[in-house]
């Protein structure tokens, strides 16, 4: 009996091991790569013949290229929230009703809510080893500097190495400030006025020109000093508060050494692939490229035909190639679902004097920050999975970054949440050619919490309509971007409301040059009526949620600031000499 019992347990153990092995071998590894601020027109396979992107182009040649791949928002924080959750940002509270449409501080309390289920969480539950390497920008803490409520490790990632925030010019120098630049300039002006007033009162008191009490001067000077400290303690030290490097929960560099960032991120990505080659794994490489200040290694400086921005794009393409080489080296190419995209369109207003520091969006109007125009939301979408997806294939159907969520959940045999609306659609039937049309009939294009445009892809038809309810006012007029303010606004005096909406036929006018009218388009009223009905139906699916980008959540809070020393003396370099260049 004892021998039989042992054999029985051995049989059970063997079956369990076989099931585990079969499960792990049937599920593909998943490699997701996302650029930051890359324009659709910056990539060779999307029409650029002056920038060299051979690795991204080869990825498209070996797989499927989407030409109408749409971000759910034109800025990084809300777009990435939608990518991670498969839901419009307005559903998770990651849209904004103010001019602050992204998270501004690592030491703020806003971020991706803990009750949101990311695709990383679903894959983690299915036995995947999950990692995020690079940019996060979905928040850190809620109530204390170490509760990590918004941290990647609290959202389904087993491993995190990178920036909890995003690159900004202040990470490199105090010149050409980027973080809320207009507010900083206003506060600095107020501080100078207060200082000049105090100085005038002081001179007047000493010379007898003014009959003012010392108490009044001291009180005014103290209030001015407190005002200066209240804003300069945050904006004056952005490099220390926001430009930090984390390994899981631990701060590795504060401030981070930008010259090492490219090599460190690449080294971590390759190392993760090598450690987890037996899979299955999910690796989300969220590049710091090609966001300003365009940190580029010496190897690529001055090598492109488009200045520093072009150098940075070509370096990112090289990084893509090295990561794909690591996949090939481990023999994982045929069992890895690979994807490349950008979080939104290129930043047209990113300039320094006469030098362009932002991307090019091809024929498409607008760019980063513009919720309706194609240039702000149409991004690269490239997939490769040899033997499963066809090679050298182009699909022109409307798709969304939100579609990655149900697609990878399907590949991992995961179960999506049933208690909420998921706006993404599983792309596998479309990518494999089993169906010819996208499941998206309507797509809603938000700018913050404001609905700017709606796209209607008529079922079983080539017709593709897009109605604009609100468009930004370009500065100067006709310039194609908002160069005076640095980024277009979503509401107020800086936008134009259209009634009836501007209507474009994207199938014949993808650049949105000439809107149709009732006089030129017999179906005008029918199309507008159907789109408005879809808007009403969509709004009925929305429920009130806490606003993560509210004024309170998006202000710097010293008690939430991650610090590797004793606050406010926050600086360290735990990476030290362990850095090795990957060439």
Automatic annotation (TrEMBL):
Cofactor: Ca(2+)
Sequence ranges assigned to domain Sulfatase N-terminal in this UniProt record: 28-414
GO cellular component, one term: endoplasmic reticulum
Keyword entries, A-Z: Calcium, Hydrolase, Membrane, Metal-binding, Signal, Transmembrane, Transmembrane helix
Gene Ontology MF term list: arylsulfatase activity; metal ion binding
Membrane-traversing stretches: 187-204, 216-238
Signal peptide: 1-24
CDD domains reported in the protein's UniProt record: ES
PROSITE patterns: SULFATASE_1, SULFATASE_2
InterPro entries the record matches: Alkaline_phosphatase_core_sf, Sulfatase, Sulfatase_CS, Sulfatase_N
PANTHER family given in the database record: ARYLSULFATASE D, ARYLSULFATASE FAMILY MEMBER
Family affiliation: Belongs to the sulfatase family.
Protein name (database record): Arylsulfatase H-like
Species annotation: Terrapene triunguis
């Amino acid at each position: 009996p004892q021998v039989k019992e042992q054999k029985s347990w051995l049989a059970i153990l063997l079956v369990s091991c076989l099931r585990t092995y079969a499960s792990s071998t049937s599920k593909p590894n998943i490699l997701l790569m996302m650029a930051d601020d890359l324009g659709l027109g910056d990539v060779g396979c999307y029409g650029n013949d002056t920038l060299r992107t051979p690795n991204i182009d080869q990825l498209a040649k070996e797989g499927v290229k989407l030409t109408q791949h749409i971000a759910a928002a034109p800025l990084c924080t809300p777009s990435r929230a939608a990518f991670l959750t498969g839901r419009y940002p307005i559903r998770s509270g990651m849209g904004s009703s103010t001019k602050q449409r992204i998270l501004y501080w690592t030491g703020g309390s806003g971020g991706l809510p803990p009750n949101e289920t990311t695709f990383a969480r679903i894959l983690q539950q299915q036995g995947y080893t999950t990692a995020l390497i690079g940019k996060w920008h979905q928040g850190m803490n809620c109530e204390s500097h170490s509760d990590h409520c918004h941290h990647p490790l609290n959202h389904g990632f087993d491993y995190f190495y990178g920036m909890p925030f995003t690159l900004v010019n202040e990470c490199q120098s105090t010149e050409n400030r980027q973080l809320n630049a207009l507010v900083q300039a206003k506060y600095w002006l107020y501080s100078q006025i207060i200082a000049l007033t105090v100085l005038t009162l002081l001179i007047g008191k000493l010379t007898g020109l003014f009959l003012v009490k010392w108490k009044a001067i001291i009180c005014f000077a103290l209030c001015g000093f407190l005002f200066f400290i209240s804003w300069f303690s945050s904006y004056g030290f952005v490099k220390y508060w926001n430009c930090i490097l984390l390994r899981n929960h631990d701060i590795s560099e504060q401030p981070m050494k930008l010259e090492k960032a490219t090599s460190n991120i690449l080294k971590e990505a390759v190392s993760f692939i090598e450690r987890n080659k037996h899979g299955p794994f999910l690796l989300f490489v969220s590049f710091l490229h090609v966001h300003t200040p365009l940190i580029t290694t010496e190897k690529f400086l001055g090598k492109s035909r488009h200045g520093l921005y072009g150098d940075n794009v070509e370096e990112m393409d090289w990084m893509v190639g090295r990561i794909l080489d690591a996949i090939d080296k481990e023999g994982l190419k045929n069992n890895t679902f690979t994807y490349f995209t950008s979080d939104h369109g290129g930043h047209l207003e990113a300039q320094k004097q006469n030098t362009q520091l932002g991307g090019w969006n091809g024929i498409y109007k607008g760019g980063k920050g513009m919720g309706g125009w194609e240039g702000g939301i149409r991004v690269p979408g490239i997939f490769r999975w040899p033997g499963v997806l066809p090679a050298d294939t182009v699909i022109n159907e409307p798709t969304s970054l939100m579609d990655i969520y149900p697609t990878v959940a399907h590949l991992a045999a995961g179960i999506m949440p049933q208690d909420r609306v998921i706006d993404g659609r599983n792309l596998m039937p479309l990518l494999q050619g089993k169906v010819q049309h996208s499941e998206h009939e309507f797509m809603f294009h938000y700018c913050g919490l404001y609905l700017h445009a709606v796209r209607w892809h008529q079922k079983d038809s080539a017709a593709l309509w897009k109605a604009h309810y609100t468009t930004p006012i370009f500065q100067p007029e006709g310039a194609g971007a908002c160069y005076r303010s640095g980024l277009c606004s979503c509401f107020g005096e800086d936008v134009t409301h259209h009634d009836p909406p501007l209507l474009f036929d994207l199938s014949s006018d993808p650049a949105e040059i000439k809107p149709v009218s009732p006089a030129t388009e017999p179906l005008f009223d029918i199309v507008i009526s159907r789109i408005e009905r879809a808007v009403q139906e969509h709004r009925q699916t929305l429920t009130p949620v806490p606003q993560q980008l509210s004024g309170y959540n998006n202000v710097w809070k010293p008690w939430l600031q991650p610090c590797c020393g004793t606050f406010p003396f926050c600086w360290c370099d735990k990476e030290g000499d362990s850095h090795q260049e990957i060439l």
